[in-house]
Amino acid sequence: MARGTLQTKGGDTGFEGIGVDIKPLMQQLEEMRRQINDKNVQRQIHRAVGKIYKDEMLTNIVDARETIRIRRGEESPLDIPVGTLRRSVRVWLIDKQANTYWVGPRVGRRMPVDSDGWFANIVEGGDGKFGEGRNKGVFERSIKNKQAAANEEMRTKYMKAIKKAAKAKATRS
Description:
Blueprint: E1 4-9, E2 15-20, H1 22-36, H2 39-60, E3 68-70, E4 78-80, H3 84-88, E5 89-93, E6 101-105, H4 120-125, H5 138-172
Antiparallel strand pairs: 1-2, 3-4, 5-6
Helix pairs in contact: 1-5, 2-5
């Protein structure tokens, strides 16, 4: 911790000035900021918070009763197995240069065929042709349900990381 200084003011007249040498304190705060700014610490926290949303989404999704077959013109029909929407929900890092995670149905070439949630926006919005499904609005509803808990979890985890950084610094001093 920062060390206080005792300065004698006015010679031997009995006045003393007590001040704080703020430079060591500022160095310690900067070191703690760097530790919290560490991408691995942030990623660990953000992934844990993303898992809160993911668990809520998985709880709210209702699987189809049977395999859904989609016919598109002359192409061979496309089958969507039961549970594909549930398997598509992931927490993933958007960009390796950032620490931002997304939560929701993962789509694209990185997903296995039985877990590709390319149809999630149709399910979320309710398809006009097939009518409203059981999962209409499931992702938006899940996010609203867990937003307060996720924010509190993030705040708690960051506070714990700050305390850990302060404790580590105190033991080194």
